[in-house]
Design goal:
The chain is α+β, with helices and mostly antiparallel strands and 128 residues long. Helices cover 29% and strands 27% of the residues. The protein has 4 helices and 5 strands. A 5-stranded mixed β-sheet has the order 2-1-3-4-5, with helices on both faces. The chain is globular and about 35 Å long. The chain starts with a helix and ends in a 5-residue tail after the last helix. The chain binds tetrahydrodeoxyuridine. Tetrahydrodeoxyuridine binds next to helix 2 and strand 3.
């Protein structure tokens, strides 16, 4: 799947963001090796700690449906306008559990045609 199309799906998922505390809305679209796409948004909580990031929502949805092999994840975020949005350390570690660091691509998008692509190894070097 083209990265632009994956970003479009992340932008759609971002519409469901539940972020009344930070007002920072994030969407993610996870591309599985079998071609399926699972989306996610961030879901905040009044106690803050239980907040779940968009990336983990997408990954946990996929794993809970039996998926284990992933090629890429697109991430978009911002309060109103999209800004460059990178995955937090916890999400990077969750990606490391399931993804090949040299192969898995993290696509940070500002629009379907403006994005930056990294491998997980680049964003989480010397991972545990
Ligand atoms: N957030 C994500 O969902 N993904 C990221 O990559 C960065 C941060 C969420 C968590 C919280 O709901 C809000 O953005 C502000 O930190």
């Amino acid at each position: 799947m083209e990265y632009g199309k994956l970003i479009e799906k992340a932008i759609e998922a971002r519409k469901f963001s539940y972020s009344p505390y930070s007002h920072f809305c994030v969407g993610a679209a996870l591309l599985c090796s079998d071609g399926r796409v699972y989306t996610g948004c961030n879901i905040e909580n009044r106690a803050y700690g239980p907040t779940n990031c968009a990336e983990r929502t997408a990954i946990f949805k996929a794993v809970s449906e039996g998926e284990r092999e992933f090629d890429a994840i697109a991430i978009v975020g911002g309060e109103e306008e999209l800004v460059w949005c990178y995955p937090c350390g916890v999400c990077r570690q969750v990606m490391a559990e399931f993804c090949d660091g040299g192969r898995f691509k993290i696509i940070c998008g500002k629009s379907p045609d403006e994005y930056r692509v990294y491998t997980l190894n680049e964003l989480l070097p010397e991972m545990f």
